Amino acid sequence: MEAGKIEAKMDTVCLSSSIEQCIHTAQGAFKDSNVRFINQIPEETFFVEANKRLIYQVLLNLFSNAIKYNRPEGTVTVKASIINEHIVKIFVTDTGYGINEADMKKLFQPFERLSAKNTTIPGNGIGLSFCEKLMALMEGRIGVDTVVDEGSTFWIELKKSLPPVESA
User: Fold this and answer.
1) Distance of CA 102 to the CA centre of its chain
2) Burial of 72 (0-12, 13-18, 19+ CB in 10 A)
3) pLDDT tens-digit series, residues 36-93
4) Among 20, 36, 94, 119, which residue has the least CB neighbours within 10 Å?
5) Is 88 helix (H, G, I), strand (E, B) or coil?
6) Residue 21, by phi and psi: left (phi above 0), alpha (psi -120 to 50) or beta?
7) How confident is the prediction for the chain on average, in pLDDT?
8) Buried-exposed string 23-49: b where 16+ CB fall within 10 A, e elsewhere
9) In 3D, which of 40, 135, 147 has the Cα closest to residue 99?
10) Beta carbons of 157 and 140 less than 8 angstroms apart
11) Among 141, 44, 55, 38, which residue's Cα sits nearest to residue 94?
């Protein structure tokens, strides 16, 4: 990616379908966790302009982190909303421990594991910095809102798209 060799061919992506696939994958990878997903993406789905493979990677990383850094018996809630006529925002909210203010400055830096570096939580600290770069490739944004001892909401913003036109 640093060499500029990743291209983001943009497609119209069905958000509910991508999110369902990512939830299924994340739950399978962390089947021993007691974390439960609550998918609040409405049936009347949103479509976004994104690269299918890259948005899958971003969502999977956010879901995996929401499981790994959650409390036992915690939840991960996924929802989306239309911000304006051009932007869809996806929210991934966990019931974990939140991120303290001092760590927020380091959150999207490569190889930074914050308070997890001395734990058994798996990872190498490149996931969020990678997600930030992938979102930039798709002309989107990523961010977080967090409250210590209550949890975090990671969010991404993408361009809204119309449903694909079915060919006759």
Assistant:
1) 22
2) exposed
3) 999 998 766 789 999 999 999 999 999 999 998 899 999 999 999 999 999 999 999 9
4) 119
5) strand
6) alpha
7) 85
8) beebbeebeebebebeeebeeeebbbb
9) 147
10) yes
11) 38
* DSSP codes joined into one string, 51-72: -HHHHHHHHHHHHHHHHHTS-T
Q: Which residues contact 24 (CB under 8 A, 6 or more apart)?
A: none
| Eight-state DSSP code of residue 5 | -
Name the token pair of 18. 């991508």
- Amino acid in position 76: V
Tokens of 122: 């798996």
- Return the closest-CA partner of residue 138 out of 91, 87, 104: 87
Task: Report the Cα–Cα distance between both ends of the chain, in Å, rounded.
Answer: 38
Run of H or E including 144: strand 141-147
Helix 127-137 to helix 52-68 angle (10° resolution) is: 150
Only one residue has tokens 């959150």, namely: 107
- What would the two tokens of residue 17 be? 């379908």
